[in-house]
Amino acid sequence: MSRDAERRYRAARAVQRLLNPVMRRLPLQTVLETTGRSSGLPRRTPVGGRRIGGSFWLVSEFGERSQYVRNIKADARVRVRIRRRWHTGTAHLLPDDDIAVRLRGLPRLNSAAVRAIGAGQLTVRVDLDR
After folding, report:
1. Cα–Cα distance between 32 and 49 in angstroms, integer?
2. In 10 A of CB 31, how many CB atoms?
3. What residues contact 22, with CB distance under 8 A and at least 6 apart?
4. N or C: which end of the chain has fewer CB within 10 A?
């Protein structure tokens, strides 16, 4: 990772540590819940994405460096809170997905932030249980 990307990663992590505890409590904020790979405890992360049919799509701004992506690699069973309702599902990491095209189909503000801040982005698809 380049120096610039490393600097952006560290800055984003510092901001997320402050904002995420507040954001995940907001009732309309979309939240991804994974299982901690070491602790086994639920880990909730505010995310931006969109439900399309039976799947929820998002792009991780730092790809495999993101803690929730590491948790998904250990246990793909997740929950997603969309509009105050929890949905269970199975997450899939899609490294071959076209990030630029994917971000055009997701919420604009979040997509702009992912493009501006991110490095090594990774698409995540959560197939929701019926």
Report:
1. 10
2. 18
3. none
4. C
Residue 124: CB partners within 8 Å, gap ≥ 6?
Answer: 49, 57, 58, 59, 60, 69, 72, 91, 92, 93, 94
In angstroms, the CA 43 to CA 30 distance is: 14
Q: Answer yes or no: are the C-beta atoms of 96 and 126 closer than 8 Å.
A: no
- Residue-averaged pLDDT of the chain: 93
What tokens appear for 64 in the block? Answer: 């495999």
> pLDDT grade, residue 9 (50/70/90)?
confident
Closest CA to 56 of 99, 89, 18: 89
Is 56's pLDDT higher than 90?
A: yes
